[in-house]
Design goal:
The protein has 479 residues and is of the alpha+beta class. The chain contains 24 helices and twelve strands. The chain has three domains: 182 residues, Beta Polymerase, domain 2 (2-Layer Sandwich); 95 residues, Orthogonal Bundle (cca-adding enzyme, domain 2), CATH 1.10.3090.10; 139 residues, cca-adding enzyme, domain 2 (Orthogonal Bundle). It binds adenosine-5'-triphosphate and magnesium ion.
Length: 479
């Protein structure tokens, strides 16, 4: 109650921002959008609405991309038709959402998201004690819809029919100046929806724009508000951020703004581990590289990477302190980390199973004998797990010889594969004999000379265990 009052008063004294009701209309000659970059489906969606007398425009990130000469990855349409009316105009459409009702217009695999102009402040809008908007479904005018969008560059409306661009908040100029500017008072807008702070980081990093000083200034002080945002929405945003193709810049910026703490509480833990920061940045760099060449990124791979240093720490502990076998120790570590982190991060169940597989396969890569190699390369997660191992090896946590062995094994025919396994078996026997005759140091995932993120040796000595005393990795042999 009290905080609501404080927010009201604060809003009353906040600098007044001009309400703009008339857009500047920018002609095709001036904006130079190439109409061939507009998707056929977005065009059809607008046409169907316009034929029935409604207004309909392409809006948001798509217009931004069109102005930058980039093919948009998806198209959003804004209209004065209500969701019910939109549904009636389109062949296949479904109404979704409760907090904000939207219509998904479906064309095979292509979906055009169609939203009705939202009113600026209405009876139907409800806020929580922190000022966060929790529900609103009141429809309004086009200028109101523009004022409610986050950044000026996201409030441009493009009519594919007339090729005119409608600009209420000088977004066109901001695009030219490569500037990200909040519409209205940034502090008020962040309080209404703290996710806008993350969007500022993501969109500016992705486009290489600078965040205008007034828009940036409140972020570090308001970062804590992200804690009030439902975690499912945060996870969505984190995923968007990590897969926007500029994850390295985003992460650096997030940390500079102090936003990462609420988003990824484990990030501080990760980067505080020896080599943890390097591991994280390398993983993000690889993600960006994959996206740059059009490859897919799975959320489970990303979360698997972020959480891995914690798994390794527990894996080692279970093995060395609890005397579990290598596989058992990893399994217990994985379950433990998934249980604690997934709850906090709200990682969906389907991702959890994949993450678990990704981690378990890391131990299986160490076994190049028996039937394991044959079945491992058939595993549906083999490719992802191999990429993950590659990442570990780039930091020296897995011997390069292990990586090349698997590369060779995958490329070989069955005779050669059998010969490779035979050779590995012999080698294992020899090293086993040697190991039995000498005092062994603690098992590591990497040669003793190399540091491992989160894989640093525990201070206490390992309790010897019969099952875990057999060396399985080249690293062990080198240790
Ligand atoms: P991209 O799709 O490239 O990630 P985008 O700007 O299109 O970026 P979307 O999440 O698709 O992002 O949102 C579409 C549009 O909806 C935005 O351009 C913006 O106008 C508006 N919007 C989205 N999220 C918010 C928000 N939190 N507050 C205000 N407006 C928003
Ligand atoms: Mg979009």
């Amino acid at each position: 109650m009290f905080s609501r009052l404080v927010n009201r008063v604060r809003d009353m004294f906040a600098p007044r921002y001009e309400i703009v009701k008339t857009p500047r209309i920018i002609s095709r000659d001036e904006h130079g959008i190439d109409p061939s970059l507009v998707s056929v489906e977005a065009r059809k969606t607008c046409e169907a609405l316009q034929r029935r007398g409604f207004k309909a425009y392409i809006v948001g990130g798509a217009v931004r991309d069109l102005l930058l000469g980039v093919t948009p990855k998806d198209f959003d349409v804004a209209t004065d038709a209500t969701p019910e009316q939109v549904k009636r105009c389109q062949r296949r459409a479904v109404i979704i959402g409760r907090r904000f009702q939207l219509v998904h217009v479906i064309f095979g695999r292509e979906i055009i998201e169609c939203s009705t102009f939202r009113a600026l402040e209405g009876e139907g809008q409800r806020k929580d004690a922190t000022g966060r908007v929790v529900s609103d479904n009141v429809f309004g005018e086009m200028w109101e819809d523009a004022a409610r969008r986050d950044f000026t560059i996201n409030a441009l409306y493009y009519d594919p029919q007339t090729e005119e661009l409608f600009d209420y908040h000088k977004g066109f100029e901001d695009i030219a100046a490569k500037r990200l500017r909040m519409i209205g008072d940034p502090a008020v807008r962040y309080r209404e929806d703290p996710v806008r702070m993350m969007r500022a980081v993501r969109i500016s990093s992705k486009l290489g724009f600078t965040i205008e000083p007034q828009t940036e200034r409140p972020i570090p002080q308001m970062a804590k508000l992200l804690e009030n945002v439902p975690s499912a929405r945060l996870v969505d945003e984190v995923l968007k951020l990590l897969t926007c193709g500029h994850a390295v810049t985003c992460m650096t910026q997030l940390r500079a703004e102090g936003l990462h703490r609420a988003l990824l509480p484990m990030l501080d833990v990760i980067v505080s581990e020896p080599d943890g920061e390097k591991f994280l940045m390398l993983a993000l760099q690889r993600t960006d590289e994959r996206i740059a060449v059009g490859k897919k990124i799975s959320p489970s791979f990303l979360f698997g990477t972020l959480l891995w240093p914690q798994v390794v720490k527990r894996w080692r502990y279970n093995e060395e302190e609890k005397g579990m076998s290598r596989m058992q120790a990893l399994h217990a570590a994985s379950v433990d980390v998934l249980e604690t982190q997934c709850q906090q991060l709200n990682i969906q169940r389907r991702y959890q199973a994949d993450i678990h597989d990704l981690w378990m396969l890391q131990a299986r890569f160490e076994r190049r004998t028996g039937k394991n190699p044959w079945s491992l390369v058939q595993h549906p997660r083999y490719r992802a797990a191999y990429d993950f191992m590659l990442l570990r090896s780039m930091l020296g946590h897995v011997p390069v010889s292990q990586v090349t062995w698997w590369e060779e094994f995958v490329a070989a025919d069955s005779d050669r594969r059998a010969a490779m396994i035979e050779a590995a078996q012999q080698e294992a026997r020899q090293t086993g004999d040697r190991a039995r005759t000498r005092r062994r140091g603690p098992r590591t995932d990497a040669p003793a000379s190399q540091t491992v993120p989160g894989e640093s040796r525990p201070r206490r000595r390992r309790r010897p265990s019969r099952r875990s005393s057999r060396p399985r990795t080249e690293a062990d042999r080198n240790a």
